[in-house]
Each structure stands twice: as C-alpha cells, then as structure tokens.
Amino acid sequence: MHISIISSSVRTGRNSHRVALFFKNYLEINKLATAEILDLQQFQFPVFNERLKFQKNPSPAVVEFADMVKSADGILIVTPEYNGGYPASLKNVIDLLTDEWKRKPIAISTVSAGAFGGSQVITSLQFSLWKLQALTAPAMFPVPKVSESFDENGVPSDKAGSEKRAGAFLAELLWLMEAKKKMSV
Question: Which residue, among 29, 33, 31, 30, has the nearest Cα to 5 in the 3D structure?
Fold first, then answer.
C-alpha cells in the first residue's frame, strides 16, 4: 500500500511540515505502507483558474501531482489552521482535481501554534472533500503547539504518546484503503 502525504503549507517558517515528516518516517519505520510527501511549497502551483481535466495545456507539475494523487492508495493531509480555515494552497489543489479525489481514502491531521491543534479547520476541509466524494477517515490527529511538539526533522517531543496516537489514527486510514481495495476487485 502507498500513502501520499500532502504537506499543505507554503508559508515561510511553516511548522506543519514537521508533522508530515513524522508521518512519513512512522509509516516507513513501522512498515505500514510506502510513503511520499507531496510538498505544496515545492510545487508552487499557480492560483486555480480551471480544473485539470478542462485545461488545454496543463503544466507538467500539475499533471505529475494529479498522477501522484491518483496512484496513491490513500492520502494523508497535514494542514495548519489559518484563521479557522485551511490554507489557500490546499484549497487550490483540492479544486484543481476532481476524479482523483473520488472514493480516495483520506485522513486529516490538523496543526496549530495554539492549544487547540487546528480543530476548527476539520469541518470545512471535510466538507470540501465530501463534495468531491472522497472517503475521509473518522479519526483525527490534531497537533497543538506544533513547534513544541515536533522538531524540524519531524521528531516528536513525546515519542511514545505521538506514536500511540499515530498508530490509532493511521489504522483508520489503512482500514479504508484495504476496504476500497476489496471493493474494487
């Protein structure tokens, strides 16, 4: 099984990428799935002007991103909370694709500098994904005070606690991935 981790912040000095690094390492060390990070900061997509399927000459980066989303068995989105919502960079790529999200198992980890771990962003993000018929996992992985919780390499300050929560969180995504695989036969 293969999981693409979307690191959605393109902000200077971002901290949510730390959590994306943590999940990539956790998945690979525990041999739960292969993993890659789709770093929206590296893609630098232009502002959404048309869905990919209607673009006459899409950029190679857009096509590459769509192929990576489509070929993944599951997606793990790591997003910060900005003013109660998710970043424009993430909304941009969600709106860019259509069929790629349909019935795609997706888990969401929310991140904030404050004490609530990005809990306000989950509803709006889930709603956008539901509209595209994605399968969102019922588990959440909120990370409060992210810069204190994970270092710049994705190493958690509370290794045992973070790994225990990650195991339960990822079990939901892996279950959805396996269920979809069985239903696609």
Answer: 33
Q: Is 173 helix (H, G, I), strand (E, B) or coil?
A: helix
Could you tell me which residue, 59 or 70, shows the higher pLDDT? 70
- Picking from 92, 80, 106, 105, the residue whose alpha carbon sits closest to that of residue 19 is 80
Q: Is the pTM of this model over 0.90?
A: yes
CATH code, residues 2-183: 3.40.50.360
Strand arrangement of the beta sheet that strand 74-80 belongs to:
34-39, 2-7, 74-80, 105-111, 135-140
pLDDT, one tens digit per residue, over 67-100 is: 999 999 999 999 999 888 899 999 999 999 989 9
For CA atoms 23, 29, 33, 35, give the dihedral sign: positive
Per-residue tokens: 15: 């901290």
CA distance 160 to 40: 29
Domain ranges of the chain: 2-183
pLDDT tens-digit profile of 113-147? 988 888 889 989 999 999 999 999 999 999 999 99
